[in-house]
Amino acid sequence: MNNPMKTIRVEKITLNIGAGKNQERLDKGIKLIKNITGVAPVKTFTNKRIPTWGLRPGLPIGCKLTLRKKKAIELLTRLLQAKENRLSPDQFDNEGNVAFGIPEYIDIPGVEYDPSIGITGLEVCLTLERPGFRIKKRSSKKRSIPRPHRIGREEAIEFMKKAFNVKVGEEE
Fold it and tell me: pTM for this one?
């Protein structure tokens, strides 16, 4: 007697590489994400001026890529294998999101070392959703997600254990 509106699914996966002011590192990050996914990422730009860091509005400081549906799930299984299908409970937030870093991209299955990139890592953010979450994004009559319908930390952990065979915490 499962409620179909309570089923959890992957909404999107976002890959992010922050480069700061270093343009060479930004170019390597763009090349890395393109090698992993086959899709070119977009650059991210600063909005604020921070003189102590040497940042001004409009300066490119990183790159990101968002994947959805089947491509996101295929890539997520490879990225979790790089983490040996282990996540920490701290990597889950209270809104149904999972974030983890991969320190070295050569750990990802199917990705070869590229001397022009060197050794670098990336951040992976996974967003989970349920049917009905569209109400927060639609153009007319936007509403917030009711509290009983939101995805909590424990629900997200259970979903990752069942769907992707992930071990969370110190369990064996």
Answer: 0.83
